[in-house]
Amino acid sequence: MAVLPPDPVFCLKSDMGHVHSLCFPITNESYASKLLAAAENGFIYFWDLETNRLQHKQSMGDSIQVVHSLQNDIITQEKSGLVKLWTIENNSNYELSKTYTCNGGYCRSVLLDENLIVPQEDSTLDIIQIKTMTKLNRLVPHKPKLGNVMCIQKVELGGKIYILGGYETGDIILWDYDTSQPCGHLKLREYITSLTFDPVSGRGICGNASNTLQIFTIDRNFNITLKCDISITNDGCNIVKLRRDRKIFVSGGWDGSLRLFSWKSLRLLVVLSEHRGAVTDVQFSPKTVRYWEANIMAASGSDGMISLWNLYN
Length: 313
Description:
Layout: E1 10-13, E2 19-23, E3 34-39, E4 43-48, E5 53-59, E6 64-70, E7 73-78, E8 82-88, E9 94-101, E10 110-112, E11 115-119, E12 125-129, E13 134-139, E14 149-157, E15 160-167, E16 171-176, E17 182-187, E18 192-198, E19 203-208, E20 212-218, E21 224-231, E22 237-242, E23 248-253, E24 258-262, E25 268-272, E26 279-284, E27 297-301, E28 305-309
Antiparallel strand pairs: 1-28, 2-3, 3-4, 4-5, 6-7, 7-8, 8-9, 10-11, 11-12, 12-13, 14-15, 15-16, 16-17, 18-19, 19-20, 20-21, 22-23, 23-24, 24-25, 26-27, 27-28
């Protein structure tokens, strides 16, 4: 008899509507107790994972595509390209501190220490300092007519940091973070939507608008090579994410499915079909959630729900 897919341990529901992004805040606590959700309606929702209840919500803009947490501050990025730094005082509501404007489309920014990598016009990326919201440098591709950058991923190679960008044309470009110079390139399928990378094995995963996930490698000489394709049932993948223990990776599809794969064998383990709209983001808790006594996976969707999972731990 076939083994049935597991159920989520809990589903968080409110008036969120379309949820674009999730964030587990990094705190000094020894466990994960909060989850932030950025919604199309311009609100950030603060979920308490000790009670699985909504603790607070606050209007922070319009169509918030991504939310980041940095110590006690919050960074939001809107569909318009407006990036906002929010600070909190006396445990009251967050107050707007500084802003920065990027014009690179809907690509999500990436937090890197106390800097932020944001999409900019003409297929470029800006490195900005968060505390001052000022530009430190610009990453310029060595190829023309790439279209908008669609996703950004931090890459570690040989103890150094690099930035990988995926484009509408299917190109992925690797930059040296210290010198801001491009150092690697590969052409994959068009309309790349998401990237993730494993610094131990040197392998990465690319999701796109097709029904194929692509596995690539980056070697010490920055040669980026396509290794294989993984076919999935339906077109469109919004997010690919590798769990921290490097045992599984997950893809979130336009069809609402969460597909979990073995990272070692690339074999499909299970398809989770809890969501009734496209999966928009997947995040793994950095620490144990006490309520479940486990590290959990959180997935958001266009259906206005966040599903929580305890899988293969």
